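Example 246.
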Amino acid sequence: MVIPISDGYRTAADPAAAAARLLTSTGVAIMSSLDLTRSLGAGREAWARFARHWEDLAPDPYAAELGVQRQRRYGQYVLRDGAWRLLPNDAFAQPENSNPLYIGKNRDFEPLTDAFAEDPLQQSLMGVLARVAAALDDAAEWDVKVHPFRVQSVAGSDGRPAPEGLHRDGVTLVSSLLIGRRNALGGQSSVCDVDGRPLLTATLDEPGTLLLGDDRHTLHDVSPIRPIDNSEPAQRDVLVITFASR
Ligand SMILES: [Fe+2]
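Predicted structure in complex with fe (ii) ion:
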């Protein structure tokens, strides 16, 4: 006897597939921390270890020119036939039709640490994202860019996670994973369609929450963060990973 599996059952069993379906139909989706944790097979210790990589980032001199305190690293992979290849460290060039601040300007960032690149949680996260990207485009080869960020702000200054304002990244899939927030107000994510109609507004506040966007059909922005307690800086750690079909 064949027992039909309802869509609801499938959603519960495979949150990444459910998120991919939502993404293809609406252009945006959020995976809760619980759903992502289940998809990654990660435990509390794995998340704690992963978050420690954000204590080992390097200052972003280009953001500093705009008065933004941001730390980051950068890595680029090629995914082909299920095989990942980490490319040698190279300048990050913003694609055309994307972030207006940096088009045509190559930026040099410190590479991902070996510990980060080899972290099992990072590797399983890229596997989940590859499945989601495959739902958007049947690409033979993916150009995957990995950006761990920390944005900070002190009393009286806005910490702008997205100094460029509403923008697209010029890719196929854009994802933003909240790693942690400390003493921070704000940091609200918004996604709209290309005509500016709002599709989603959400504050990623629970570590492990993943925002997914179809970058071909949407624009995104994040509001500034400010300290709750003015005697300490506000801090927001995220991991942005983009997939572009080649
Ligand atoms: Fe972006």
